[in-house]
Structures are given as structure tokens and as C-alpha cells.
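Researcher: Watch the backbone:
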Amino acid sequence: MSVDESNNVHTRLQVHNCVVQPLLTDLYQITMAYAYWKSEKTSDTAVFDLFFRQNPFQGEFTIFGGLEECLRFLENFSYSDSDIEYLKTTLPPTIEQSFFGYLKELTAKDVKLYAIDEGSVVFPRVPLIRVEGPLIVVQLLETTLLTLVNFSSLMATNAARYRMAAGDNVSLLEFGLRRAQGPDGGLSASKYAYIGGFDGTSNLLAGKMFNIPVKGTHAHAYITSFSNPSELKNKTLVNLNNGKEQDLIDLTLSWRTTLSNLLHISESQASDGELAALVSFAIAFPEGFVALIDTYDVNKWHFLGPKELPVISSFGSGILNFCAVALALNDLGYKAIGVRIDSGDLAYLSNKSRETFVKVANEYNIPWFANLTIIASNDINEETIWSLNDQKHSIDCFGIGTHLVTCQRQPALGCVYKLVEVNGTPRIKLSQDGSKITMPGKKDAFRLYGADGFALIDLLKKSVEDPPVAKTKLLCRHPFDQKKRAFVVPSTIKPLYKIYWENGRIMQRLPDLSEVREHVKESLRSLRPDIKRNLNPTPYKVSVSDDLYEFMHELWMRNTPIGELS
């Protein structure tokens, strides 16, 4: 690693969550460590695999997140004096005092960590991380590594699914801090939503810490805090065309009267308090004016039009007042940005809003007005977006909170951390539930690609085996079903693991968030569309080599007790 890369790593690791420390673990990790120590197993070595068993959200892919945070944890892994004092008061008094001295000296310098690149598409049973080192130390890492990977990967996957639902031409903003599971949950959600494909966040601290673009408008409270234009202390704005101050209220009221006839919305139905709020906000942000327009009068019928027939207004007050302010700003040389809709029938209201903008643009020859941004919020989830797509909405940007940051559809990924080798001897965990049987020993993972560039299958091999060779026939077997096997001739092969931690330091350059975000896009592009589709996606196959299959089943038989009938 070059000096520049080393400095890059050092600088990035300064942003470390102080909560992530050795005591962020389960009690039984410490009690096992003492039992290991008491059994004189301090020189034993072990290998653990961190993996998950099932893709989330009824999908067939997962995005790997949290690797950088795991590396930060390793760099800072040591027990402080106060940690030791706390453990002395918490553990049974029979614990030998010299054990605490042993804990005080522990670091991760003898640990090796192999991992798939963060932001990669990953699949069940393929270890995301392989940890090697002293048995006691790598056991103590378990809970913390799991908590760092579980939510990060779940959150990035959830965000990626929203991105696929929305498509590439619609912006996605994360608005979930107030609904997140506490401050750490909110920060993690903002970070991994951005990695998964969101364009920005409302979370200022996340923006500062992770260099994520921050976005926001105003709340209904701002609108309802105003009663009448007469209460505005500041009513003027500099006209960019001549540099003179001009009364924005008078200009807006004039436009509202004119637009009332054009849009068939009664001016008497428009809220003066709302108008005052929008003018006030426009004076504060004339070059970034986005207005929340659903505070009053959503989808209300008005009797105004030819022969007094009832016509439905697109939340009459809000759309009329917004257009009036936007046109007043235009007269002064400013361009409004758009509107936010936070309630009602989002497909219908977005389309009516777009029709209104196009109508105004054509009437007054202001082409950009037709393309004003329409932002939709209001408890949106993945299914909502698919439904809105079917209804041909006109929304340019979704602001998404609760369902995104809490992963309501599936609140946990279910990563596990399993022992697969001790002192060079493979270990296997057996279970009546076949999905919980582990694959023993140290393994390497490879991704096999077809001639079309799409990933065909992931292949696990024993680390002592020769790596697979492209353009040769490879036997790929299902880990547990002897009937499921196939020959694969891959065009290209990608080894999935890199050594990320060794000799107490990071061994790879760590990408920044924008680079991880791009890697997510690239990795998803390597999957066939049928694997990524929302409804009944095709399962992606994970296989083992013939040698690993035979070895695994031999060990399985060797460790399975033989029953006796009598």
C-alpha cells in the first residue's frame, strides 16, 4: 500500500463511532472467552464465516454493507481501563484476576479478515467476511461484526430496491431521521440509503459526516404559522433585471387573480395565510423555492367553470398560490424549483400539477415552467412506487422515510457468524434444519460470468484447491442436494475475496461513499433482469466444487451419531 493510500485510510478511520467498541457485545462472548482462557486455549486459532441464509424482502439479491465500519472496529479494538473495571464488577467474583490482565492486552493485530468488496451484490451462504486468528479474539469479534453488517446490508438492499422501482430518472431523497430507530439508526440509514442509490438526505449530521447531499423544504407548520400577507415584515425582493427592490406580495396577488381564471380555481378558495407563507419562503430562498402545496384544500370540488359545472381543482389553494408566487419570482428574474405533495392521490395530483404547469408555460411562453419538479412524500413504500408507475404518475422525486429507514417489510437480515475451523481442523455444525448446517473449513468464493457479461453462479471451493479457470468445464454442485449439479463453462471468473486486514492494519484502499455507491450500480448491472424483478424473481445459484461437496458430506457423516433401534 502506498503512502498516499495509507494516509487516506488513516484519515477516513478518524470518523469512528465511539459506541462501536469491544463492550458493544453480548455477555456470553466474555464468558466464553474466560472459559477458553481457563481451558488454556489462548494459543488456539480459528476461522469464522459471516454470512446470511436468505435474501431479504422476498428478493433474490442482497447488497453488502458495513465493511469499512468493521475495519474501524478492528483498528480500535482494545479494552480500556474503565472497560476492565466494569467487567470486574459484572462477572462472577470467581473469575481469576489474571484473566482481566489478559483481556487488557488483547488487540486485533493477529487477526486476518478477508471480505467481498463493500457494495457488492451477494447471496445466501456465501461468506461476506472470513475472519482468521486467535480463537479467543475472533470469538470476541462476533456480535460487533454482526451488528455492523446486518443493518447496513439490509438498509443498502432496501434502498437499492427503491431505486430499481423508481428508475434512473427519478430522484430519491431519504427523509427518515425522525422515524428511525434512534440516532445511530438514523445515521446508519442515511449513510446506507445513499450507498444503495438514494440521491440525498434530510439528515444534516449525516451530510456533514459522510458528505451526502442534504435536501429539504418546509413543513406544514410553516404554512399554518401565517394568517395573512399583511403580517409580513419583509415584502420585497431584489429584481435581478434592474437591481431594484420590488414588492413580491403585490406582484403575487396580481398573478393570483390572473391565474384564477386560467386555472378555473376560485380565488376566494385560496388561503391567504398559505400565500403569505409561500411569499415569505420565496423571499428567503428566491433561487431555491420549493413549496409544500397540500396544507389546505386537497381534491376539493369547486363550482366554477362553463355553465357553473363542478370541476375538481388540483388542491386548489396550494397550486394556485404556488403558481402565483412562481410567476412573480419569474418577473423578478428567478426560477422556482417545484412543489412537494404530502397527501392525497399522488398519481392523480402529480398529473394534475404537471398539466397545470404545462398550461401556465404555454399561456405565458415560459418553457421551463412546464418542467417544474414535483416531489411526493406521504408514507411511501416500494409497492407504492410500483403502483404509481402503473398509474403513469408525473413525479420527479420521492421523499421516503419510515418504510425505508425502518425496513418495515423485513426488519432484520439474519447474518450469522459460524466457526468453520479450529487449529487447521474443519468444523461443521449439524442441524435437523438443513438450512442451518454450516459448510466447514476455509473456503474461497468465485463469481462465474457468461459470455453476455451476466453473472451465472457463485462457486465456493476449499482454499487449498486450485482456483477455477475461465473457458473450462466446471462441475458446480448444490451444497446439500446431490441431484442438483451442472457443468458450467464461464467466460470470465472473478475471485470475490480480498485480504482487508492483516498485521494490525488495513490492506486495501477504502473507497469513499460515492465510489461504493457506483460499485452497487455496477454490481447490480451484472445480474440478469429476471433475478432483480419485483415479482417472482429467479433465484441466483450458489454452488460448491465437487471436492468441497464430497469433503463436506464426509464430515457430515463422520459427525452424525448412528442411531440404534431396540
